[in-house]
Amino acid sequence: MGARRGQDYLQRLNAESRDVWIDGQRVQGSVTEHPAFTNVTESMAKLYDLQFNPNLRDMMTYEEEGERYGTSFMVPKTSADLEKRRQMHKIWADATCGMMGRSPDYLNSALMAMSQAGDYFAQNNPMFAENIRAYYRYVRQHDLSLTHTLINPQVNRALSVSQQSDPDVAAHVVDKNKDGVVIRGARLLATQGPITDEIMVFPSTLLKGTEEDNPYSFAFAIPNSTPGLRYLCRETFDYGKSHFDHPLGSRFEEMDAVVVFDDVLVPWNRVFLLEDAKLCNDLHQMTGATIHMTYQVLQKNIAKAEFVLGVAENIVDAIGIGQFQHVQEKVSEIMLAVETMKAFVRSSEADASLNRWGVMTPKWEPLNAARQIFPKLYPRLVEILQLLGASGLMAIPSETDMTSDVQADIHKYLVSRNRNAEDRLRLFRLAWDVSLSAFGSRQVLYERYFFGDPVRMAGAYYHSYNKAPMVERVQRFLHQDDPVQVEVASTQA
Ligand SMILES: Cc1cc2nc3c(=O)[nH]c(=O)nc-3n(C[C@H](O)[C@H](O)[C@H](O)COP(=O)(O)OP(=O)(O)OC[C@H]3O[C@@H](n4cnc5c(N)ncnc54)[C@H](O)[C@@H]3O)c2cc1C
Ligand SMILES: O=C(O)Cc1ccc(O)c(O)c1
């Protein structure tokens, strides 16, 4: 089949039942018809449709052996391939204002990278190499959407997963039989879980296990319709309001869900790593998956920061605050975030090379730096919107007020310098949805945490960064009579 249309995505969701719980009830019928999911599934469908837009088709898809597939499955072999992947990521990210981190290309990128690293999985079991390759081909062939879950429940972080008082809480292996592996316990968190086709239950990219954690160490993927697999959703932040009232939440509300495995049977052909904490620890890094995911993440970051910049400058224009220096400085901060992200991408591409699996791979160091910085930048961008919008962010009656008995008040008092009341309301409701609504607050939490705890990410960054040349350079400076000579020599080297 190859690249699919939105209609195909929706039909597949409609055809498969899944165990999704929200607000005390199991979703009956298709998730596409539940108010928490209708709008976001429509948005996902629109992303798939972009693959058939005549102006974008060459960018969004590629051809292999007579079939057209989504570009996020394309194994990049050249810099041009990488550029094509980058453009595809940006098109999807722009389509969602950067507000859907889990557009399908995020996890497709991880799977693409892993599929080329069969030997890594073979170290655990020769069969696992073919399993990951076959899974990649299957997901690509049907253009499936994936979610993933990597983190054990937050019961007691002072203890490792195997030391928890109830060893049955975190997802773990309880049986292995001729049909597969049986998993019991829970994981968090699966963004988009209820509205994707399959779930990858993979090791953390960051948290390292020991041999005792082997029963909790695995990589596998199963359909979301698998018996015993259950999603426990938070409340939805799509409140069923119009696009006017809730411009982002009514379109891009990605659900987050706890995942429960109630003795779920994972068939052997879907197991990629099993009970080997060491191989699990290094999986994402050694296969290049983290790099290709981060490459996607940066396009989302650019799209998101550009969108916030547009919102900020519209506010500046609407209420006439552009002449104030501190306002210029604040908007400039957003511009710097955009340019910083772009520069990291450019730098990663300039130094791209084939990795050990023959995949053209952007340079990791700039991408890693970018993923350390953005969780700090994004909350500030949102703060800037609050500081610029001020009370205007609360002077936002709803769409229905515009046609109610108080419509005269609204059309008189809620105009801005160069906008009528309706246009001002549209703008400020958007700024509210980025910076203050439940949807907007979740975006901030998402950026802070989705790639892992920033504190431990910083620790890993500290340890992995090659600081030795700088330390030695200072040592030389301290012990030379004529440090200028040393500098010239080190520059030439
Ligand atoms: C909106 C959102 C979407 C997400 N989507 C997904 C998803 O799709 N798939 C997925 O797998 N995960 C997802 N996550 C989970 C994400 O990976 C985790 O939030 C992240 O890894 C941090 O883990 P935690 O939330 O369990 O925090 P914890 O590890 O419990 O940390 C809580 C606090 O304790 C501190 N702390 C805990 N342990 C230590 C330690 N050893 N040393 C120092 N400080 C420590 C942390 O710094 C932090 O301040 C999502 C998270 C969010 C917020
Ligand atoms: O690996 C971890 O520890 C955290 C992590 C990484 C990538 C993700 O997409 C994610 O949701 C969570």
Automatic annotation (TrEMBL):
InterPro entries: Acyl-CoA_Oxase/DH_mid-dom_sf, AcylCo_DH-like_C, AcylCoA_DH/oxidase_NM_dom_sf, HpaB/PvcC/4-BUDH, HpaB/PvcC/4-BUDH_C, HpaB/PvcC/4-BUDH_N, HpaB_Deino-type
Record's keyword annotation contains Nucleotidyltransferase: no
Binding residue positions for FAD: 148-150, 154-157, 191, 453-456
HpaB/PvcC/4-BUDH N-terminal domain segment(s): 6-273
Amino acids binding substrate: 102-106, 148, 204-205
Name of this chain's protein: 4-hydroxyphenylacetate 3-monooxygenase
Xref: PANTHER family: 4-HYDROXYPHENYLACETATE 3-MONOOXYGENASE-RELATED
Organism listed in the record: Alicyclobacillus tolerans
Keyword set, alphabetical order: FAD, Flavoprotein, Monooxygenase, Oxidoreductase
Pfam families the UniProt entry points to: HpaB (PF03241), HpaB_N (PF11794)
GO biological process: phenylacetate catabolic process
All residue ranges annotated as the HpaB/PvcC/4-BUDH C-terminal domain in the record: 280-478
UniProt feature coiled coil, ranges: none
GO MF annotation list: flavin adenine dinucleotide binding; oxidoreductase activity, acting on paired donors, with incorporation or reduction of molecular oxygen, reduced flavin or flavoprotein as one donor, and incorporation of one atom of oxygen; oxidoreductase activity, acting on the CH-CH group of donors
NCBIfam families hit by this protein: HpaB-1
